[in-house]
Amino acid sequence: MKVRAALSLLAGAFVLYFAFRGLITHVPFTGPPLAFASVLLFVAAAALALLAPGRASANELRGGPSRMPLWAAIVCVVVAGALPILSTAQHDHAHGVHTPHVTWYIGAGGILATIVCARRRPVVAWVGTAALAVTSILGVGDVVDALLAGLVGSVMWVILAQMLVAFTDRAHRDTARLALIQHQSSAWRAAQETSRRERRERVQLAIGVAGPILARVIDSQGSLTDAERAQALTAEATLRDELRGAKLLDAEVRRVIAERRQAGSVVSLYDEGGLDELERDALSRVRDELAATLRRATSERIIVRTSRLPETAVTVVGRGSGGDADVELWHEIARPVHV
Q1: Phi, psi of 99 (to 5 degrees)
Q2: Predicted model pTM
Q3: Which strands sit side by side in the sheet containing 312-319, from one edge to the other?
Q4: Does the residue 273 lie in any domain?
Q5: Is 197 a member of any domain?
Q6: For residue 23, what are the domain limits?
């Protein structure tokens, strides 16, 4: 059950209790209609306090009491302060007006102030409690009798309501903070697991690429054929790619780079941290475009470099045999925009 529903049911039970006490009083009245009107006014004010639509704030407990409108809170505390006057106006004072079953209005006014406080209007609630104390003392005729008749209990209920709201809001904030910490911890563990998996993949790739040629170097005692030397240079370049441009690489990019090198191109990768902030999907789109760009490249020297510019993620430059001035390819891969 939600906190709001539980508190509403509890408050409703107290409202019915005090309304019943107000109806069954045995003290004679010189004008019963006014006494019954005070009970009906109390029930109407309690219904307004419980049912008036409010607004929730970021610090409130989810499912807890919302902040009631100010006008509704003022109406409720005015009724709470007026109940003692209305209820005692036509009492027969010869029969006493401070016995527990007669002073129902003190508890009823306290309930109204408590509901107002629970619905996040503590200042208004305390103003209403003060008004209730003054009119109760006037109605009963004595401070001590008013305190014994229920005024102390009404004040305590308002204090408890304010403490309950503070504690539940704090519990909500602590729960939200714990959920955030757990989410961050899960994200950190996932990132660590991804990093470990990538390191294992790179180690396996290094073994697969360099292992055979290293074994051949050992077996031949460094005497390699031209083809084997070319294979060793390709293996070295592949390992360099894993060290310098790991973020740029996936299976397809590695395959296209291998094809370019077999065709005679010198491919160099430089990852300077420009892709660190990209999400997995955005990084995948950058790699797909890089693979497509390299597939079309035919330059003698191809340089792939990440960029920290806000609009550009990767720059691909192809140079011919004429040196740095001989630019045959210039392609910029746009940085994906977060939607």
Answers
A1: -75, 155
A2: 0.54
A3: 266-270, 301-306, 312-319, 327-334
A4: yes
A5: no
A6: 3-178
Kindly state whether residue 212 falls inside one of the protein's structural domains: no
The rounded distance, in Å, linking the Cα atoms of 135 and 106 is 9
Which residue matches tokens 């010869």? 94
Whether residues 149 and 59 fall in one domain: yes
Which residue type is seen at 252? E
Dihedral-angle region of residue 221 (phi above 0 means left; psi in -120 to 50 means alpha; beta otherwise) = left
For residues 129 and 276, membership in a common domain is answered with no
Q: Is residue 106 within 8 Å of 131, Cβ to Cβ?
A: no
The strand pairing partners of 318, in sequence order, are: 302, 329
316-337 pLDDT, tens digit each: 999 987 766 778 899 999 998 7
Which residues have C-beta within 8 Å of that of residue 267, sequence separation ≥ 6? 237, 241, 257, 260, 261, 294, 302, 304
Query: Is 45 within the bounds of a domain?
Result: yes
Using one digit for the tens of pLDDT, what is the confidence trace for 170-219? 888 888 889 889 888 888 888 888 878 877 877 777 777 777 777 877 87
Q: What secondary structure, in 3-state letters, does 219-268 show?
A: HHCCCCCHHHHHHHHHHHHHHHHHHHCHHHCCHHHHHHHHHHHHCCCEEE
- Alpha carbon distance 124, 79 (integer Å): 13
Domain final residue pick, 160, 178, 196: 178
Q: Which of 46, 69, 65, 73 is nearest to 7 (CA)?
A: 65
3-state SS, residue 329: strand
